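User: Hey, quick favor. My workstation is busy. Could you predict this chain's structure for me?
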Amino acid sequence: MIHLLLQGWAVLAVLMALLWLRQLRTSNATSVDAAWSGGMGVLAVWYALLSDGDPARRLLTGGLALIWAARLAWHLISDRVLGRPEDGRYRAMREHWGPRAPLFFFVFYQGQAIVATLFSVPILAAMHGGALDGWTAAGVLVWVVAVGGETIADRQLALFRGDPANRGKTCRTGLWRASRHPNYFFEWTHWFTYVLIGHGAWLTWLGPALMLLFLFRLTGIPYTEQQSLRSRGDDYRTYQRETSAFFPWFPKRA
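Assistant: No problem, here it is.
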């Protein structure tokens, strides 16, 4: 496992270095988000081909991870990268770092390669084992619900944003009425796929544990909500009071 993880990290480190060179030319670092998820797909294929374990288990686990990663990467590319200015998070980082931004962005990009490799551990761990069983079927069911829910949430938000009448307003339709971040919730749920498929392998629990940490403390909800408050002000503050932050639940009355 360690050998495969080091090889995967080396591949992603090169990929991130190339993207860092691209952002030097474009002054737009948003592509790093899609590169992270795309890199996870590359690692899933790499592990499925070269790791130990039952071939059917490796193929199924790698295929599920690849489809998840490809969907997420394409969504991020189409929503944030193609024809879009730099995401507000990265503009703020660029302004904060000033002349040191190129160096700090290089460290940031390489950090994404390390994080992606760390997140790939549960996928690799789930591939080790014997023939497929009932736990595998449960994992596939969780994957269908999670990836389907995330896709629906992304689509609902895209339709809302696509209406010029909604400019400056907060999406409260569909899943966004029950949670301020339904896409994050289903993303977190997705990682239980590998816990179930790799039933008994404790390393698979790194997925949901790390994702919850990142969403609540590092890169997810705090930064997203700060940006939403800056752009939508009181409307988003009302949304915060009425709607669950993460777990879907009935909205409160204002």
